[in-house]
Every structure is written in C-alpha cells, then in structure tokens.
Amino acid sequence: MAGYEAICTENLTRDFKNVRAVNNMNLTVPAGQIFGFLGPNGAGKTTTIHLLLGLLEPTNGTAKVLGYDTRRVAAKIREQTGVLLEHTGLYERLTAEDNLEFYGRVWGLTPAERQARSKELLSQLGLWDRRKEVVGKWSKGMKQKLAIARAIFHRPTLLFLDEPTSGLDPVSASQLHQDLLDLVKREGTTIFLTTHNLTEAEHLCQQVAVIRQGVVLAQGSPAELRANRGKPQAEIEGSNFSGRLLVALEERPEVAGVTLQDDRMVLDLRGSGVSLAPLVRLIVENGGQIEEVRRASRSLEDVFLDLVKQN
Amino acid sequence: MVRDILAVVWKEIRELFFAPGNSIRGRILIFIAIAGIILPLQQGQLWLHSSLAVQLIVMEPVFLVLNVIADAFAGERERHTLETLLASRLSDRSILFGKLLTAIIYGWAISLALLVVGLIVVNVAHSTGTFMFYSGEVLVACLLLSLLMVTFMAALGILISLKAASVRQAQQTLSISFLVIFFALIYGTQALPKDWINNIINFAGNIGVYGVILVIAVALVVVDAILIGVTASRFQRDRLILS
C-alpha cells in the first residue's frame, strides 16, 4: 500500500453561502501512514472529511482519494473506507452484535466472516461478554470502542477517525493507539485522524497538517514542523551563572541569545546542529556549576498554538 | 443492489420489532384484536364478504405504517446515525428502497395477518361444518389495495421524513398531509356535479366490482410511482448531510 498518495487535493474549496469552510486546500496524504489533521473547533476538519468521502461537492478544486475523483466516483471511495465521525453513529436500540452484523452485511461479508470478525474485534476490545446488550445503555467509552470496531470491521484501505479517543479512559486510549499502529503495520491501512490531543498526534502520526478557517497552515512530519517553527535551544540547570559568563556566551557565534531564570539558563542556538560541548566547557571555565544540560525540543502543541495564534 | 437493500431491511426490522421498550408489538396486537378478532366475531360469515372488512384491512395497516415511517430518515438524523450510514458503501437507491420496502412489508404483513386471523375466527366461532373463505372481490381488494395503500403511505412518509428536522415533526406533517388528502377526496367527490357522479356510478356498475378494484389499483399505481420518483429525486446525500 505504501508508496502512493492515499489522498491528494488541489485547491479544494467549499463554500456555504457566505462562509468559506475549506479554502484552496492542497493536501497530500501518503498511503500506509497515520496522518494527523489538527485544527481548532470550526476549522473545517469535518467539512474536509465530508468532501473526501464525496458526501459534499467541492465548490472548486479537486480531491482524489485512493486514486478516485471524489466528484465522479465517490461510491468507489466509500467502498474502501471506514469512518468514525463526530458521533459514533451506532444504533443505540440494537445490541453491539447487531450493530456489527448490520455493517458486516453492508460491506458484503459472508455470515462466517461476520461472526469471526465480530468475535475477533469484540474480544480484542473487551466487549465480547457484553455483545448481546443494547448499546444505548453503554458508557461513552464503550460506545466509542464499538464504533471503532465497526469502522475497521471490513478491513478498509483508508480509515477516517474523528477524535477516536474522545471519551476513552487512558488505558483504553493507549490500547487504541497500539491497535492503530498495529493496523497500519499489519494491513497497510492509511488513517486520516483528526484530534485535539496533540500528544496523541505526536505519538501516532508520521505526517500532520494544521488547519484553521479552512486553510492548511503547515504540513509535514511532527519533527519537521517543530524544526521549522522553533529555534533550537539548550537548557542548562545549575548555579553560579555570573554576568561575565552570560556576556561570554552571548559573544559566541553559535549563540543567538541567553536568558537566565533563577537556576535555569536557556541558550537560543543558531541551528540544530550546534555542538553543546564547547559551550559547556566555557560555562565551567567561567565558574558555572552544571547540574543538567538538555536540548530543548518544542512540542507539537507549542507549534500548533503558535500557528493558530499567528494566523 | 438487492443484497444492499436486504441489509437495510434487516436493520430496519431489527430496530422496529426487536428493540427493547418498543411499543409497536402491542399496537399491532390491538389492531389485530379489533379488525382480526372482535369484528369478525360480531359479523360472522358476513365478514368474509363485507366492504367493512375491505376498508379495515386496507386502512388499518396504513395508520400503522404512518406511525413508523416518519422515523425513516428523521429518526436517523435525530439519533446521529445518518451521517455514518451515508458514509457507508450503500448507494442512495439501496438506502431509500431498503427503508421503503421495510415499511411496505410491515404494512402488508399486517393486512395478511388480519385476513388470516379473521378467516380463522369466522371458521371457528361460526362454524357451518364446511370451510368458509373470503369472496373473490374482498380477497383481491384486500390484497391489492392494501399493498398499494401502504406503498403510498410509505413513499409519502419517506418524502416527508427526508426533510423533517425531527421524528415528531415528520409524524405531524405526515398525519396532516394524510388527513388533507383523505378529506379532499371525500369532499372533492361530493362537490362534483350530479351528472358526473351519476356517470361515475353508471361506469362502476358497468365495469363491475373487479373493474372498480382495477381502476382504483391503476390510479394508486400511478400515484405511488410518481411519489417514489419524487422521493428518489429528493434523496441527495449532500442535502442530507447538511440537514
């Protein structure tokens, strides 16, 4: 599966009366990866998913999903995708087993396949013993797990997950993360994941895009985004950081700036490849006592907040 | 496509009959008790030849269908299941005809149940020693007209349900629409010039009971076909997803 683009949009635009929900979006999602689609509420994430599934017609531009044009062969796209949207979409008056049975029938699985897959997924998610219960009486987390089982029931090539860990306890969320990583590794599934949980995105996604007001602000791997958006820094904890030492550090060509906060000194570096050893030697030679030295890395959350605030 | 339609029918039937707390089974039993047991008991052998049997066996299922069909799309929308259903591989036609077919099967099955239960009641309670059966006219009218009437109600219900914001709104609109059509037919017929009414009566007399059934059936087939066509044209994923 890997090696081609699962999703490719060109100037994808969608207007609702006077509101431009998606604005000239150019997005590339490589196959066989988990792609994070990050944005604040109302950024256009759900509209983008609707456009990619061919549920909405674009006002302008094009989108190809799994090689199919969303305007012309949306049915082909939906045949090969699984979805967990904002709402779980479960039939709450039916049992867990019936919910999976229905979507198994929808995807044309044989009775034996439906039974086996149902047992496999419900057991994996710890729901097998409760399969005959009506879903409406379940907790949000259990419903979310069942909705995920439904989304992957037919082993889709591409999976759209909208906030999949919302409502899950930390243990279940962590289990789900592992399951998603396994799914990608084992079956080459591409996952298009929208989330507000940036730690989750950082942990799971090989590529992310940040969107706001329908515009893609940045796209790349979390590491690329961090590298592009933030200056490299070094944090040094210790004592005896004198004024003379600060001046000496500022005079070094690889140092762009020095900030001292109590026993913590932060050096802004001119490039991520700067070696810290000469700087450490300089500090020691100037009487500084070092407890700890570390390269400071900006989290995806910092990058996300910067991007969203700037735009 | 047939397999997809049957998948939708399967789901609809599970939700309709097997959902806990659903009062539909109770309602069906009440209707069957009235038009399948009490009235045949009172009327005896006459029931098998009466126009009252035709009226009840044709119209009772229509009211039961009215009650459930409003839920078709408005219910999916209200319970937030529509978006996921529309994002599945099912075609527009499969979803639409799956829901339509369920309502028709449901309504027509009740008509058949009323026919069978009534027949058993009359033969058991008013036994003459020989097996009694419906007259040909009553049987044909019940089978054919009930099928076409529940199809009419199902198609009208789905059309309204597609646009309604909630199940309650769909039920209200559907009930009012049905009453308007019903009374328009009654008062419209009465308002016709006397010559026309006489001509219609003469025409009915000339073509006989089977002829009248056929004319009504043809008229209903045309109306049903138009309604289904309009409903199919109104089923648009982008409109539904935004509603």
Q: Any guess at the CATH architecture of the largest domain in chain A? A: 3-Layer(aba) Sandwich
CATH secondary-structure class of the largest domain in chain A? Alpha Beta
CATH topology (level 3) name of the largest domain in chain A = Rossmann fold
Summing up helix and strand content along with how strands pair, one would put the structural category of chain B as: mainly alpha
Approximate helicity band of chain A: 25-40%
Order of helices and strands of chain A: EEEHEEHEHHHEHEHEEHEHEEHEH
How much of the sequence lies in strands of chain B comes to: under 5%
Number of strands of chain A: 14
Name given to the CATH homologous superfamily of the largest domain in chain A: P-loop containing nucleotide triphosphate hydrolases
Gap between N and C termini of chain A, in Å?
35 Å
The gyration radius over C-alpha positions of chain A equals 24 Å
Describe this structure in words.
The complex is a heterodimer of chains A (311) and B (243). Chain A is of the alpha/beta class. Chain A folds into two domains: 5-227, Rossmann fold (3-Layer(aba) Sandwich), CATH 3.40.50; 229-299, 2-Layer Sandwich (Alpha-Beta Plaits), CATH 3.30.70. Chain A contains eleven helices and 14 strands. The radius of gyration of chain A is 24 Å and the shape is elongated. In chain A, 41% of the residues are buried. The model of chain A has no long low-confidence stretch (mean pLDDT 87). With 243 residues, chain B is mostly helical. Chain B has one domain. In chain B, helix 2 (24-43) packs antiparallel against helix 3 (51-69). Chain B is globular. The model of chain B has no long low-confidence stretch (mean pLDDT 90). The chains are: A alpha/beta (311), B mainly alpha (243). At the A-B interface, helix 2 and helix 3 of A face helix 1, helix 5 and helix 10 of B.
